[in-house]
């Protein structure tokens, strides 16, 4: 007897797995036997712009409300980024990895982030949907690569929000003149990396989620107010800090050498995470072609400048060896005799981290919404609430996941793993720009396709070589080999492969050089991350592959074939309608001819 997989309707499983492959265990068994064929299909199938913009959006039942302008996006960009890494990791990296040269680490990671911003901006303008980089990669690199990216995108958001939520507790403790562990439950029998339980972080996340669910526009207004107050505190830190600066603290500017600078920059890339969340708001933007470039690029330039000023101020106020790793700016003011000022700093940091959490929750839910529209995740998460115009199910799911991680996990583990996921995604988006500009199905010849593949492999391979060599040696021989190979790969795209697609409104400048450099610098920073983080990254990627083979592959395959079937039917109907119209015209012409003939005879 055929056993139904959806017997218990109350469980909601039908809403989670509505595809044909999951109607019964027998259907699932048949689908699973076709895994090799389906995997090959999904690996080489690319989505199209109109499918992401029209078809995918239609699967959310209701449309998101277009309420955001470029002014909103700039404030969202500043609110998303400013306040996370600068108040979370600056002290840690200055003390243990880079010293006062941490300002150069911010320059390196800021450059990498700005290059990625250019790539994200072109995609967000051309494909203004909630899916962000997931949608972009589906169009250019195919379903399989997009899914691996999707899993890491969701991991990035969960870990990013969890790290900021735990730091929120640290600064809240400073504001209350307490030690952060006074607000945590310490379980001595557990591993110290996971045994400092943080209920305050969970409460902060839930409070933010309520606002994110209520309204995107209300979230934008709250973000503006909180960010303005935060900027006043930052100006206070810079002005008072520089007045009390001690140049002797810069006497040992780079105590850990260039290796320490680059190692810190890889972790401090965390400080720039958040701008990609702004790209997910393209679907709710009034004029994406104008608003997104101004909002993304403008906010990133402002943020990089502020970060460099804050990092310099911290190390001028206090010797890097005595910088506090939990609340560096608050403690720095205590060290110069301005103990009362640490409360202002802590309050400003809390406001900054609150806006970071808000934009993170908003962005993460939009990503999950669009991923679920493709059925790679259950489509139940794609539903948009009719009254609020926000993705209610996706928001709740992401907040619960984030709260669980924030409750248990130490900040250092979170930041390193987060940087790997983020740098990996940004590298793929840069590759996607090269593919978008230089490859188009039916237009690019086989010869040019092979040239592009060889050049992209050369760019990625030489970048991996530079990263590996820098991690193992301070010499120059490896650079002498890998750098020319990178130039050869990039130059090969420029000279040998014709550009087949021009952006309609806004495009990345200096293609292919800028995207290629983005690939190189992201991979270079990946080489500075510790081995344990790569092991955790590998485990997570393995879990993603298992889920994809067992569930995501079959669900997305069925959904894509349904779309193709509808398109074929629509094309057939259009063709038949045209045929009928032509027949009608012929009959009408024939009838008129007969009438004219009769009239002539009369």
TrEMBL record:
Native source organism of the sequence: Trifolium pratense
Name of the protein in question: Uncharacterized protein
Domain of life of the native organism: Eukaryota
């Amino acid at each position: 007897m055929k056993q139904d997989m959806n017997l218990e309707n109350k469980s909601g499983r039908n809403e989670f797995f509505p595809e044909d492959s999951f109607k019964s265990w027998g259907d699932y068994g048949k689908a699973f036997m076709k895994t090799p064929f389906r995997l090959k299909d999904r690996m080489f199938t690319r989505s199209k712009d109109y499918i992401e913009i029209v078809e995918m959006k239609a699967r959310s039942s209701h449309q998101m409300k277009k309420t955001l302008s470029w002014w909103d996006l700039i404030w969202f960009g500043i609110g998303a980024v400013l306040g996370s890494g600068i108040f979370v990791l600056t002290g840690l990296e200055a003390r243990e990895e880079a010293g006062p040269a941490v300002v150069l680490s911010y320059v390196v990671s800021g450059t990498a982030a700005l290059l990625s911003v250019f790539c994200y901006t072109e995609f967000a303008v051309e494909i203004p949907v909630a899916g962000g980089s997931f949608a972009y990669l589906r169009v250019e690199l195919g379903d399989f690569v997009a899914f691996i990216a999707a899993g890491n995108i969701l991991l990035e958001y969960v870990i990013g929000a969890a790290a900021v939520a735990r730091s929120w507790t640290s600064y809240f403790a400073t504001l209350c003149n307490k030690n952060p562990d006074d607000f945590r439950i310490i379980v001595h029998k557990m591993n110290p990396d996971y045994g400092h339980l943080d209920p305050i972080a969970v409460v902060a996340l839930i409070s933010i989620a309520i606002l994110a669910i209520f309204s995107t526009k209300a979230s934008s207004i709250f973000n503006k107010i909180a960010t303005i107050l935060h900027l006043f505190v930052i100006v206070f830190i810079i002005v008072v800090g520089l007045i009390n600066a001690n140049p002797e603290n810069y006497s040992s500017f780079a105590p850990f050498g260039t290796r320490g600078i680059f190692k810190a920059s890889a972790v401090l890339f965390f400080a720039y995470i958040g701008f990609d969340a702004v790209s997910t708001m393209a679907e709710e933007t009034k004029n994406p072609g104008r608003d997104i470039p101004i909002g993304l690029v403008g906010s990133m330039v402002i943020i990089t400048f502020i970060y460099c000023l804050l990092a310099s101020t911290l190390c001028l106020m206090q010797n890097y060896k005595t910088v506090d790793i939990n609340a560096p700016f608050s403690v720095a003011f205590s060290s110069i005799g301005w103990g009362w000022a640490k409360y202002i700093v802590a309050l400003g940091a809390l406001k900054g981290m609150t806006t970071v959490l808000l934009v993170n929750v908003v962005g993460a839910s939009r990503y999950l919404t669009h991923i679920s529209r493709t059925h790679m995740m259950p489509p139940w998460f794609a539903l948009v609430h009719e009254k609020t115009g926000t993705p209610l199910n996706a928001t709740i799911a992401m907040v619960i996941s984030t709260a669980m991680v924030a409750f248990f996990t130490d900040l250092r583990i979170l930041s390193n793993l987060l940087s790997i996921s983020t740098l990996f995604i940004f590298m793929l988006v840069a590759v996607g720009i090269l593919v978008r500009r230089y490859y188009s199905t039916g237009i690019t010849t086989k010869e040019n396709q092979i040239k592009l593949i060889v050049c992209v492999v050369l760019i990625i391979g030489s970048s991996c070589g530079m990263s590996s060599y820098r991690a193992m040696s301070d010499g120059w021989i490896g650079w002498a080999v890998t750098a020319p190979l990178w130039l050869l790969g990039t130059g090969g795209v420029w000279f040998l492969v014709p550009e087949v697609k021009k952006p309609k409104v806004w495009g990345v400048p200096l293609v292919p050089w800028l995207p290629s450099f983005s690939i190189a610098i992201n991979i270079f920073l990946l080489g500075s991350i510790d081995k344990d983080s790569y092991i955790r990254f590998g485990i997570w990627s393995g879990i993603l592959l298992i889920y994809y083979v067992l569930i995501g592959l079959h669900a997305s395959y069925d959904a894509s074939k349904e779309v193709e079937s509808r398109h074929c039917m629509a094309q057939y109907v259009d063709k038949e309608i045209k045929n009928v119209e032509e027949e009608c015209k012929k009959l009408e012409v024939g009838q008129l001819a007969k009438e004219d003939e009769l009239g002539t005879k009369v």
